[in-house]
Design a protein that fits this description.
67% helix, mainly alpha
Amino acid sequence: MDRPDQAPAGEGLIPWFYRTLRNAAIDRFRRREAASRAVEAFARELETHAAPAPEIEAEICGCIERLASTLKTGYADALQSIDVQGTPVKAFAEQQVFQSVMPASPSFALEPR
């Protein structure tokens, strides 16, 4: 307890502590519920949101491409593929795993025996 001197005069320290603890727990649950409601509202908004007009979408893609050019290659590739080209995240991840196992330009050559 940082400031036991904040306990009201005439009230014991232990009852004050439990009341403060109870109020802190209630505040935490209220914030969690508020955050949950905000996420649900955002999900509903996404479901009902119409796709942007083609010129707006092109502008958004241009912004994402400019942003991607400032990132590390792996991050830029993910942003470009998933957000601009619309590749599903799972498909992009599988493609990355495949490319790490089978590089585009292998450093070895298969020679007939």
